[in-house]
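Work Package 3 (structural annotation) set out to generate three-dimensional models for the target panel prioritized at the project kickoff. During this period the team completed the workflow that converts sequence records into discrete structure tokens, so that structures can be stored uniformly alongside our sequence database. As a representative example, we reproduce one entry of 407 residues exactly as it appears in the project archive.
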Amino acid sequence: MREIILINITGKDKPGLTTSLTNILSQYEVIILDIGQAVIHDYLSLGILVEIPSKHSSSSILKDLLFQAHELEIQIRFSAIDAESYIGWVASNGHERRIITLLGRTLTARQLSEVTAAIAANQLNIDIITKLSGWVPQDETERFPKACIQLTVSGKMHDPGRLRRQLLEISKKTGIDISFHVDDIYRHARRLIVFDMDSTLIQCEVIDELAKHAGVGEQVAQITESAMNGDIDFKQSFTQRVALLKGLDEKVLAQVAENLELTEGAQRLVTALKKLGYKIGIISGGFDYFGGYLQSKLGLDYVFTNALEIKEGKVTGSVTGDIIDGHRKAEILKTIATVENISLQQTIAVGDGANDLPMISIAGLGIAFHAKPTVKENAQKSISSVGLDGLLYLMGISEREIRQHYS
């Protein structure tokens, strides 16, 4: 009859520790059923689930391991696993795994406590906890600090919507971004990312900046705010705002473009994704002049924007062609995915306004970035506490990997 033993090892980590223990197990032809390890500040926690062949005595194996543990100055503990428990463990590994990511400027015990309490209340188990953000020395000040941990959880979900609502409430209450999604194959197979432009890839609403130069800044800003909140139809609001720009000198466009500020983390995110082989684009209700400017600056693959009509060096107050609204954004994303021969599950869409929701909702990973409450509540995931490069963490890429390979 086979014996199944769980071996737990803790103590100061050192080179060759795992080798010395598995060498003993190999002498007894032990089968490894499961293994997991974590090291925090050079302190090791290692678990090995083993099956001991019937021709060997478990007492001899455990005695040898105890002696070796003493030599290595580590602690070791053994637990016998009965057949029923093992069968239950195997069955539980068939459940979907989910990823919960906590992202913010800092991470507090209260935030983690509330999230883990929600996980436990939904009968889920935390299998793995991984810190994705980097280390900042105590004597240094990070200009744009970020803290991120990723929890891998398992168990049978009876009401995923309930947990989503709980996590959203915790996010609102504690000021941390919380992402919750299934850990499937598509998470590691994204190939295309598209951004809204204004207030997402860049810090301002270009139409508002142009309006200031045209002397109609306050009127346009009010219409923009209503459109962003979804209070009025985008096409209607866009037509009203563009009409107010009539007579603006074409030279103003170049002045505004030269003063555009990229959103925090935008350059870093684009650089990393290009190295990963992503196709990157803009799908925006903004203007072609500025989309082209950013395409040249960032080396983007696709830009879809509205064409601002200019005649005799002046803005006419109209656009040429169809207006790119929310519905059109989603259609463009589908078209690009078809051209790139990828599924929508392999796409990422990032935006901040109500007119971004259609493309955010159909993308494999949809992100509401520093968005209005109504947009956040209807998006799959949101980033409100950090810059655009926080998206790399939501994709499961650690700060160490970013600095080593993608910066």
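Residues 33 and 49 are 5 Å apart (CA to CA).
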